[in-house]
Amino acid sequence: MTSCTADKLKWTEAPLVTPAQKYRQALTDLLGNEREILRLEQRWKKNSKKWIKAATRVQSFVRFVCARQRVAELRAQADIDRRKRARIANAIDALRRRRFDEAAIEASEALNLDHKCFEGYRVMGHVYLAKQEHSKAVSQFTESIRLDVKHLECRLGRARCHGVLGNWQEAVDDLVYLMDIDAQTSTYWFFRGLIRSKLRQWQGAVSDFTKCVELGDTSATAWLRRGMAEASSQRWDEAVVSFSRSLECNEIDLSAYSLRGRTFCCLRKWEEAELDFKKVLEINPDNEEANAGLAIINIPHLPLPLTDAEGALPEDPVPYVGSYRRTALRTPDVRTGTVPTPHLVAPAIYLG
Length: 352
Fold this sequence. Notes:
Blueprint: H1 2-13, H2 19-30, H3 34-46, H4 48-96, H5 100-113, H6 118-130, H7 134-147, H8 152-165, H9 168-181, H10 186-198, H11 202-214, H12 220-232, H13 236-249, H14 254-266, H15 270-283, H16 288-297, E1 320-321, E2 325-326, H17 348-351
Antiparallel strand pairs: 1-2
Helix pairs in contact: 2-3, 2-4, 3-4, 4-5, 4-6, 5-6, 6-7, 6-8, 7-8, 8-9, 9-10, 10-11, 11-12, 12-13, 13-14, 14-15, 14-16, 15-16
């Protein structure tokens, strides 16, 4: 018995190279009965040729069983994939129809079938984005990006959510990644321009909106945003041009008329400003900003002093500060008799 046990250990430790050894291992896996294995060993020793043939048959049987198991696994996986694709198709269709609850249910079912389903996380991200649940949308987009790093749509969606949540640096990082892959998409430049506007980085915002327009985005919104950034950086003449281009794209855009009117006020072009405000009132007589703009134009103010303390002609000051206040023209300080140095202050609406 000791020799059998020694043989057993020897067979276990030796590499399975011969058919007989493979046969014994197969029997060990299938039977699990030590006495039966030892008995079969003795039979093999008495008639090795016979049991080599038997070992070959056992190996064939084991391969057949493994093959059937593998086929069953593949069929089960194929069935899961089929149901998952059907769920995803239903979720995408519901998302397009703006049936967000139905889309969320279908996407959740797809994720239950496969927790690594990229499309499920993508649909859930768009559902939460549509519902304005931006924190949840960020987590879903992040999971989808983990499964597909180079998917641009999910990264853009996450950048939009970060922008709404005020995570400016994270949003810029995503947009820079997108620009590195595809610098010819105007949408990426437009969104970064919006973020830079929020951060009051006006020069950078003007650069991004200009690039957006150069890439072919000639929509009214692109021109309007560029004009707002230019006005906020006190580039009044360029802002007037941008607002005018915006109005060429959309002739009934009240915001563009109102903003151009306010910019004309900054340039002291009162007649042009009055025409823009009146145009707004023709379309919407109750527009508060246009009514306030017309009232501002008619506010009486002090005359411009002819010379400053040094005898030079004073510069033309900016007549418009804050939301609805027009500055008094430069007047000498009653205590010192000097004229204060003019400074440019952007209207509050540009700073929003």
